[in-house]
Amino acid sequence: xxxxxxxxxxxxxxxxxxxxxxxxxxxxxxxxxxxxxxxxxxxxxxxxxxxxxxxxxxxxxxxxxxxxxxxxxxxxxxxxxxxxxxxxxxxxxxxxxxxxxxxxxxxxxxxxxxxxxxxxxxxxxxxxxxxxxxxxxxxxxxxxxxxxxxxxxxxxxxxxxxxxxxxxxxxxxxxxxxxxxxxxxxxxxxxxxxxxxxxxxxxxxxxxxxxxxxxxxxxxxxxx
Length: 224
Description:
Layout: E1 3-8, H1 15-24, E2 28-33, E3 44-47, H2 68-77, E4 82-85, H3 87-94, E5 101-103, E6 111-119, E7 135-142, E8 146-148, H4 151-159, E9 163-167, E10 178-182, E11 188-191, H5 208-223
Parallel strand pairs: 1-2, 1-3, 3-4, 4-11
Antiparallel strand pairs: 5-8, 6-7, 6-9, 9-10, 10-11
């Protein structure tokens, strides 16, 4: 069975949502405290949402120095699937595992609402089970979620097909409507929306299953 590590920083608050989603999809989970230095026995990693280290300085800026991040880098370098959700996305950019940065939303407004995403690439661990052009309704919940990067980085993202998801109706001012990006190998992905909160139509949408099921399937192949 796929074993997913969920990295917990002081201030994380979405780890139980991620654990519930992972369990619903038939995988096991293990909470990994930020002081951990080894990730042995894990097949995939999720950095969940929250306010790591209180978001002092800027979101993710302190979390990148946590001991666990060296292990996350090694895990990713070995091809392990890594997913950063919301604050986890911010941590991955600050740690240099993903390009670009997240800044305050357009209009300096906190956003908590459903949003429609358009799958831009299936060459990532998050979207291999989706189709290009597919629309998914997934909620957002952030204040510093506007993706930004320089022109050269944007050109590279386009050329390498590393823009994973876009907003259909850009809610936060993200450059090029970007909601999620991947590293060059496609095994590290960060997204601002919360797929772990879109697991049931009773709660508004089950579209998060499309993304997380594909992510866990990649971890299962690594386990095999």
